[in-house]
Amino acid sequence: MKPSCLFTLFTLLCITASAQIDQELLRKPTEDTSGLQLNMDAVYNRPFRQAGKLPVALGGYVEANYQYLRENGISEGHQFQMRRLTLFTSSSIAKRIKFLSEIEFEDGTKEINIEFASVDFEFAPLLNFRGGVVMNPIGAFNQNHDGPKWEFVDRPISATQMLPATWSNVGFGLFGKKYSNNWVYAYETYLTNGFDESIIANEENKTFLPAAKENKDRFEESSNGSPLFTGKVAMRNKKIGEIGLSYMGGVYNKYKEDGLVLDKKRRLNVYAIDFNTTLPKVKTYINGEWAWINVDIPENYTEQFGRNQQGGFIDFVQPIIKKPMLGYENAVLNAAVRFEYVDWNNDHFKSTGGKISDHVFSVVPAISWRPIPQTVIRFNYRYNWQTDLLGNPPSKLAGVQVGISTYF
């Protein structure tokens, strides 16, 4: 089926369901169902500052941390890092025309990226148009990734080393949502520039989707002329929680040049499910995401390049103390833990039938303190077990991480 047909079909289907939730500690409780925040709202659901009647609002967040990690008994010592500084600019151009940009400076100024820069045209609750640099809505973390919203110093491994975290492209699409009693439904669907052959031709020597982020040309041209389709539907109940289903797929290789056929069209398909909820009595916040990746690998590539990948994470965050502390009226102390797993090659060796073992498992217990909802101080202990392609005894990494993150 052509991408344009998929785009139309998915848009019609999307109108029947969708939605997302932000972490309860980062929003004010409300009885008005129309005030429910979704993952698709994350780009605008931020503490912007506006001076007087100026048409432009500004905001941003910062992340910095310290870590001491040891891998197989070897350490690089004490490390201080300036992970990222992100700036937001928002403007209401007219009554139903909005613009927002998100520019991120990573590792000092080692990387400078435009993560979002689009114009929204609002026509009806279920029909809105967005164009520019859009954040592809695969899973939940890719859109709702701001550091102050999380109790953990590191971003999830599945979101950064399997999926390309903060993956954005130039393109156009539709989005909308509908409220019904305690339910809210939403959808997003986009056609954008997409991946290239770097996902299998990279320094990692394996199938590695994040390598495509190095191609800055994707903001001005497609590597093969075929659009990447991304779509998501989700639904949320005010009392139960939210579930989202998303898909991203398209041709990644350069199959034709100047009319000459070089190869068949090779597709990349990504499927993801995400869920989050807050248990009503104990106020435990649960947030998880799982994704499956399928890549059509050329026959002349070895088995170390995975045709199938899968992975995800689940977070548990438990408020322990909520009371004035150290002069802060609404301070909260949380205990949290993250479990995460990634299998970069979910397949078997053809010669032996044995399982290919290129995977990692991680546990991260944490304590976090929020003097205000928009600011967090995080204490993490990370423990990773990573197994190589042949299933040798795992490489073990462990250590302490301390970080701060805040909106401003």
TrEMBL record:
Keywords: Signal
InterPro entries for this protein: Porin_dom_sf (IPR023614)
Signal peptide limits: 1-19
Record bears the keyword Signal: yes
Keyword Signal: yes
The protein's name in its UniProt record: Porin
Organism field: Paraflavisolibacter caeni
